[in-house]
Design goal:
alpha/beta, Muramoyl-pentapeptide Carboxypeptidase, domain 1, Collagenase (Catalytic Domain), 3 domains, 3-stranded mixed beta sheet, 9 helices, 12 strands, globular, binds zinc ion
Length: about 375
């Protein structure tokens, strides 16, 4: 009987954990069922794996396409796309080394396996270098002094958060920003809730609040799923490749590639489709751009440019929090990290939550120990009486 109950509970928990997917423009179909027959998937950048080992002086068929990729994300400037050749030249090597630095790879200047794997990963469509200023791996050092009686302790931490050129930000009345969904997308409530959850993560650490409005055209932030060329000069490329892009403040446009297999609910890592992309993870990242953050070279940060398919990454890290608080200040009700760097700056928000829970756990153990000691002393006293 007990086994039956256990089995029932197990089945119930599994059924509530089912993954629901979403694919524009048919919001009703469940991609986890629809695409079961797909045994392979391809990214628009799979082709780049043919360039393994390619280095300066070599000529490889199609290398001009990889140069276009580097141009798109800000690594090659001052050369018109029409002049790109298949030659691995000096300017390409220079761009490659900056890319390798930004993504914490060995700066070999060669298209090695690690670099090519990174290049092929699905990513955000916003450039890593804007107007020629590379700030992704800037290594800003912040210092802060704390006085403890007579002694002064100095803390240093390296931050990699970045802003758009000119550091644009919102200055909303009542610190409130509105967001609306493109009416033609006809999004189900589950998808809208995913965006609401993503906004909440930024509201927690800033004085800002985000409110949904039905008036799309006048909303501060306008969210829409689009496919291919959609009129802003940044066409989407189908499954994987670029997943979404957003514009710096106070533009407010937030576009997502309608051709992705978006996972709305459940654990993306157990999705049956290899190309499944977690919607909330991408939304949290793009909202960072909408609020004024650029890309960061801290791999664990939300503002890192790439995300693997079937991965959920939604917790803001110290690098994200420090960056956004430089723009907007902190949330007086937030009891996590603040702008003041501490010796635990590398510890994440999540880790802090875990360690604070650990603290509570230890307290309980300590209380139990006192109760146990009291009980032993009491028994001993009764025996002696
Ligand atoms: Zn981005
Ligand atoms: Zn767009």
């Amino acid at each position: 009987m007990r086994t039956c109950i256990l089995l029932f509970v197990l089945l119930l928990s599994l059924s509530t954990n089912s993954i629901t997917g979403f694919r524009f423009p048919d919001p009703d179909h469940d991609v986890s069922n629809h695409l079961l027959n797909f045994t392979s998937y391809s990214s628009p950048w799979d082709y780049f794996k043919n360039f393994t080992g390619c280095q300066i002086g070599e000529e490889r068929n199609g290398l001009a396409k990889l140069k276009q990729y580097f141009h798109r994300f800000g690594y090659i400037r001052d050369i018109p796309i029409s002049n790109f050749t298949d030659n691995f030249d000096d300017s390409f090597e220079k761009a490659l080394r900056i890319y390798q630095k930004n993504f914490n790879l060995n700066q070999t200047g060669i298209l090695d396996d690690q670099t090519l794997q990174q290049i092929q990963r699905p990513r955000c469509g916003v450039a890593d270098i804007i107007d020629g200023a590379s700030s992704m791996h800037s290594g800003k050092t912040t210092a802060d002094s704390h006085h403890h009686g007579d002694s002064t302790t100095k803390f240093h931490s390296v931050a990699h958060y970045a802003f758009f050129p000119g550091q644009p930000k919102w200055r909303p009345r009542n610190r409130r920003l509105t967001y609306g969904f493109l009416p033609q997308n006809n999004l189900p409530d589950t998808v809208k809730l995913t965006f609401a959850n993503a906004f909440k993560r930024w509201a927690e650490v800033t004085p800002l609040s985000f409110v949904e409005t039905e008036f799309y055209s006048t909303a501060d932030i306008r969210i829409g799923f689009f496919s291919g060329d959609h009129g802003d000069g940044e066409p989407f490329d189908g499954t994987l490749g670029t997943l979404a892009h957003a514009f710096s403040p106070p533009n407010g446009r937030f576009h997502l590639d309608g051709a992705e297999d978006w996972i709305v609910d459940g654990d993306a890592s157990t999705a049956t489709i290899k190309s499944a992309v977690d919607l909330e993870s991408v939304a949290v990242h793009e909202i960072g751009h909408l609020l004024g953050l650029g890309h960061s070279s801290v791999e664990e940060s939300i503002m890192y440019p790439t995300i693997s398919s079937r991965k959920k990454k939604v917790v803001l890290r110290d690098d994200d929090i420090q960056g956004i608080q430089v723009l907007y200040g902190g949330n007086p009700n937030y009891n996590g990290t603040s702008l003041i760097p501490s010796s635990t700056t590398t510890q994440s928000h999540q880790e802090r939550e875990e360690s604070s829970n650990g603290g509570v756990h230890n307290l309980n153990i300590r209380s139990c120990w006192w109760a146990y000691s009291f009980f032993v002393v009491l028994c001993y006293s009764i025996l002696l009486m």
